[in-house]
Write a structure and sequence with these properties.
The protein is an alpha/beta fold. It contains eight helices and nine strands. The protein has a single domain (2-241), classed as Alpha/Beta hydrolase fold, catalytic domain (Rossmann fold, 3-Layer(aba) Sandwich), CATH 3.40.50.
Length: 243
């Protein structure tokens, strides 16, 4: 892991890093409390298609988690952010290229799951985070990639997923992995989602194997996730990871 930047603002330490795996550079950000007296919970964050690790809601959510005594880390998803030579400035182009990759890159899910596991291993190697209190938060593309990651990673003990259904190019993979998600799970749904219809989303929620799972549905389209949903996410992760 190579550290690129290390700054502090409003009592939140923000570190930028690159990690090289399988010939790919994984660009990431880590938000953590200033001077924790003991290892703290760590939540990995997945952004949506056309966004990045620096998207406003990702940064805001990460800082909110730090305010609750946790740490957060986010990496750029496939063909997003600093994985691109243009930095992902044209969100429409990024969205189009992700859709193409989703349907034509057979190993995309496994590659990204492997990247996330490598990042988690490296971060836990710092000795700052509690291996028994690891979380995941990711909606839309953050579930397309994040649900298989949670299914594959037994160290994740709480997850927030959603804005995704049993549909799309990797429907079979998602359907196979959903029953393997056994940790407590909060699933967020936008009732009028124009990208992933509610029937597909409800089908995915049903398929998740966690005995402790709950569904929060809000009116509105795909990109209209309300403030309450983020607040519920914070409360859910705090209740599961700070026990």
């Amino acid at each position: 892991m190579r550290w690129i930047d290390d700054q502090t603002a409003d009592r939140v330490r923000v570190r930028r890093f690159d990690l090289v795996r399988a010939g790919r550079t994984i660009p990431g950000l880590l938000w953590s409390p200033m001077a924790p007296t003991a290892p703290v919970p760590l939540v990995l964050l997945g952004h949506g298609a056309s966004g990045s690790k620096t998207t406003d809601y990702v940064v805001s959510f990460a800082r909110a988690l730090v305010g609750l005594g946790m740490a957060a880390a986010a990496v750029d998803g496939p063909v997003h952010g600093d994985r691109r030579s243009d930095g992902g400035q044209d969100s429409r182009l990024v969205f189009l290229e992700f859709c193409q990759a989703w349907s034509s890159w057979p190993s995309m899910t496994d590659d990204m799951v492997g990247d996330l596991i490598a990042v988690l291993d490296a971060l836990l190697g710092l000795g700052e985070f509690d291996e028994a209190r690891i979380g995941w938060w990711g909606l839309s593309m953050g579930t397309i990639i994040g649900l298989p990651f949670v299914a594959a990673e037994p160290r994740v003990c709480a997850a927030v997923l959603g804005l995704m259904g049993l549909t799309g190019p990797t429907r079979g993979r998602i359907a196979a992995d959903a029953p393997k998600v056994r940790c407590p799970t909060l699933f967020l749904l936008q009732w009028d989602d124009e990208l992933f219809g509610r029937d597909h989303c409800l089908e995915l929620f049903d398929a998740i194997g966690a005995p402790d799972k709950r569904l929060h549905a809000h009116p509105g389209r795909h990109g209209s996730v309300p403030v309450e949903a983020f607040g519920a996410s914070e409360a859910f992760l705090a209740s599961r990871l700070r026990e």
